[in-house]
Amino acid sequence: MKQSSIFKIDISQVEGAGDFQCPKCGIIISPEDETETVYTIIKTKVKDDALEKLLLQCNKCKSKIQLVGFLTLQNQTSSSS
């Protein structure tokens, strides 16, 4: 059985509304899409009541994508308020 690689994306480095392309197939993944048509959330990791990591699977190519940087993003938002 083939082991698929996990792509890592730092969400704090994504510009705009948080949309990004799947690193393998290029389909647009949007945080606004709650239908799970394009991607499925596999696992979440929370630290001190804040989202730390999110593991997604692209439904088109089945790649796994780990989103990191939520804590950095939250800190940036908190300090600019």
- Return the structural class: mainly beta
Please bin the fraction of helical residues: 10-25%
H-E order:
EEEEEEH
Cα-atom radius of gyration: 13 Å
The major pleated sheet works out as:
4 strands, mixed
**Strand residue content:** 35-45%
User: Taking all residues together, what is the mean pLDDT?
Assistant: 88
- How many β-strand stretches? 6
Shape: globular
For the biggest β-sheet, the strand order reads 1-6-5-4
The first-to-last residue Cα distance is 49 Å
Q: Helical segment tally?
A: 1
Low-pLDDT regions: none
Describe the structure.
The structure is a single chain. 12% of the residues lie in helices and 40% in strands. The protein has 81 residues and is mainly β. The protein is globular.
Keywords:
two-stranded antiparallel sheet; mainly beta; globular; 1 helix; 6 strands; single chain; 4-stranded mixed sheet; 81 residues
Secondary structure blueprint with pairings:
Blueprint (H helix, E strand, L loop, with lengths): L5 E5 L9 E2 L6 E2 L9 E9 L2 E9 L5 E5 L1 H10 L2
